[in-house]
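Bench log. Compound arrived from synthesis this morning; before running ITC I wanted a structural hypothesis for how 2-oxoadipic acid sits in the protein. Inputs:
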Amino acid sequence: MSIDASSLGKLARILDGAARKAVPVPMISLEYDGLTEDDGYAIQRMSMRRRQARGEKVIGMKMGLTSRAKMVQVGVHEPIYGTLTDAMLVPDGGVVEMAAHCHPRVEPEICFRLSAPLSGEVTQEQALAACDGVCAALEVIDSRYENFKFTLADVVADNASSTKFVLGTWHDPTTDVSDLKMVMRAGDEVREGSSQAILDHPLLSLCALASRVPLEAGWVVMCGASTAAVHLAAGMSVELEVATLGRVGFTVEEGS
Ligand code: OOG
Ligand code: MG
């Protein structure tokens, strides 16, 4: 059973507040056990409107849970999407502050940039024709729920755990990204994977997203992580190297 509009608005406020204060909250499905995936997306849209009211601009979307490793790590087995704003973009080589987050983790991704709108059921060729770039990318995720634990509806409401993302150098979108080696070093941890782990081909992640939400020219689309995520800690350097696409990285500071 779906929940009423005023409760959806209240939950959007709670999750937005948790992100701003960097203090995790209990899973909202504990109180609203009939919470559906659609409720989750309604809450996500409302919390994004709160960010936009503060001046943040939507600059893209992200897919999540598009690889087996990620599904297993968080125990949710369906691809989801979230919204990316300009305030989430960290420059390559930039800094991510622990104090601004609840319990951040980092994961290796591939990102496309659109030069034309894309929506509905599209082929890989049509999706590619709408792109003008592809790059190696890192996503920092930060569930606003205690212990990084959630159901499908919870994580959707929480904007698919998105908090920051870092983009490498743009390459020709026709670069073959079907099976690229991806090596992420985060402090002492090394995660190795292939871009093929992302729905069998990162472009299929873009197609899947276009079939669910209309995408705008100029937006970037993160395709989802190829390996499980790694916990961040102050003092860490994080670097991802993707065959052909090159490197992207950031450092982690305590912050205030
Ligand atoms: C959900 C977001 C997953 C990805 O790339 O798979 C995601 C989470 O793990 O908290 O962004
Ligand atoms: Mg991700």
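What the model suggests: The CA atoms of residues 180 and 195 lie 5 Å apart. The chain has a mean pLDDT of 97.
ITC booked for Thursday regardless.
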